[in-house]
Amino acid sequence: GGSGPPSTAVREAATEGVALIQGHILSCSNLPGPEVEVCNPLVKVLYVSPGASSAAAGGDLFRCKTVVHVTDCPPDTRCPVFERGRFSLEIVPAGAAGWGELIVACYDVKPGVVLEP
Predict the structure, then answer these.
(1) Which candidate, 28, 27, 10, places its Cα nearest to that of 19?
(2) Rounded to whole angstroms, how far apart are CA atoms 48 and 3?
(3) What is the pLDDT of residue 52?
(4) Which of the chain's ends, N or C, has fewer CB atoms near its CB within 10 Å?
């Protein structure tokens, strides 16, 4: 289907107090600058639960992240269009701590690296 709202079945399956987040990574553009000869981009969507760590304990770099989705990796392109870009995630709020965060990160996969499915 299209990129519209969730289907009725998905909405009916949602539980009160639970958030259903759906997204679609479509493409990237202008990756990277001209100094890089080959670019094999892939995008990861990560979830950080609320209170997973704090800035005082090492900042964002050391927070526990859960991989929600990994796109396909189109070879050698600076403007990829992803075939496997759709993702969904159900989260439950952690009271006063909130909902957590989604992080979308783009990586350049080096030639010869085997990606796990």
Answers:
(1) 10
(2) 25
(3) 54
(4) C
